[in-house]
Amino acid sequence: MSTAMMGSDVAKAMKEHLIQEVIELKEKGIEPCLTIIRVGNREDDLAYERGAKKRMELVGIKCQVLELPENIHQAEFEEAFQKVNEDPKVHGILLFRPLPGNLDEGPVKAMIHPFKDVDCMSDINVARIFSGDEKGFAPCTAEAVMEMLDYYGIDPKGKRVTIVGRSMVVGKPLSMLLLKKHATITICHTRTEDLAGTCRNAEILVAAAGKAKLITKEMVGDGAVVVDVGIHLDESGNLCGDVDFDAVKERASYISPVPKGVGSVTTSVLANHVVRAARYLTTSC
Ligand code: NAD
C-alpha cells in the first residue's frame, strides 16, 4: 500500500495565505504582534519559541519575547502579564506552561483578554471551543490536526476517530473540533482497558499520549489515517513521536512524521490566530 506523508505541505500552503493576510492588515496600518511570555529557560519552551519566532518572521508578524526569571513572585508575574495584556500593540499572547511550581496560573487565565488568548488558556475560550463558537481560539496543536485532515481532503464526518490522550491541550479540545465535523469519537487514556483494539478499530487515529512509540503496527487498522502529535527524543537522541513510524507506515494510508508533521503546522496555526486576533481587536473592540 502506498502511504502519503502529512505535514510540511500544509505549513507551506498556510504560509502563502498568511503572508497575504498580514499584507492586508499592514495596509490598514495594523501590524499584527505576538508576545511570548516565558518564565525560566526550559529547553522545550526554548525550542518552541525558536520555531514560533521563525514562523512569525516568515509571514511578517512581529514577535517579541518577555523573559521572566524562574523565581519571580506571583504579584510581579501578574503585573508583567497585565502590562502585556493591556498593550494595544499586542494582539496575541502565548504563555508557556506549565509554570514553575511557585506560580499559580489561575489569575492570569482569568485576566487574559479572550481575543489575545491565541492558545486557549482562558475558560472563556475553552467554553467557546466546547460550544462551537467560531470566535474561540482552540489550542494550536489541536487545531493543527484539523488543518492537516482538511488539507488532505480527509473528511471526519461519520468516521470512527480514536484519540489517545485526554489533555486540555490536545485530546479534549480536539474531540470537540472533530465532533463539530460530525466524527464519531473515542478518547483513550491511561485507564483504557483495550487500547490496542480501540486504536485498531479507528479509521482516523490521533496519538497524543506523550509516550514514545506507544502505537505499534498491530494497533493500527489497514488503511487508517494516523496523526502523531507526540514529540520525544529516542534512545539515539533523534526526534520521534508516539507512533512507531517505520512499522506503522506499512499499514496506514496517511501518516504524519515527527519531526515535520503536526509540529510544523502548530506554529502556522499560532500565526493564523494572531492575524485573527489582530482583526478582532481592531474592528470589534
Ligand atoms: P499530557 O501528559 O498532558 O497528556 C497525555 C494524555 O495521554 C493523558 O490524558 C494520558 O491519560 C494519556 N496517556 C498517557 N499514557 C498513555 C498510555 N500508555 N495509554 C493511553 N493513554 C495514555 O500530554 P500533552 O500535553 O497532551 O502532550 C501529548 C504529547 O504531545 C507529548 O508528547 C507532547 O510533547 C506533544 N505535544 C506536541 C505538540 C505539537 O505541537 N506537536 C504540542 C503539545 C504537545
Explain briefly what this protein structure is.
Residues 139-279 form the Tetrahydrofolate dehydrogenase/cyclohydrolase NAD(P)-binding domain. 42% of the residues are buried.
Please name the defining characteristics of this protein.
alpha/beta, six-stranded parallel β-sheet, binds nicotinamide-adenine-dinucleotide, 285 residues, 10 helices, Rossmann fold, three-stranded parallel β-sheet, 42% helix
Known CATH architecture of the largest domain? 3-Layer(aba) Sandwich
Number of strands: 11
Number of discrete helical segments: 10
The CATH C-level class name of the largest domain: Alpha Beta
Q: Biggest sheet, open or closed, and with what strands and sense?
A: 6 strands, parallel
Using the CA coordinates, give the radius of gyration.
19 Å
The low-confidence parts are none
Classify the fold: give the CATH topology of the largest domain.
Rossmann fold
Percentage of helical residues? 40-55%
Helix-strand pattern: EHEHEHEHHHEHEHEEEEHEH
Structural class: alpha/beta
Q: Bin the strand percentage.
A: 15-25%
User: Order of strands across the biggest sheet?
Assistant: 1-11-8-7-5-6
Oligomeric state of the chains in view: single chain
Dominant shape: globular
Say which CATH homologous superfamily of the largest domain is assigned.
NAD(P)-binding Rossmann-like Domain
Q: What distance lies between the first and last C-alpha atoms, to the nearest angstrom? A: 53 Å
Ligands and ions found: nicotinamide-adenine-dinucleotide
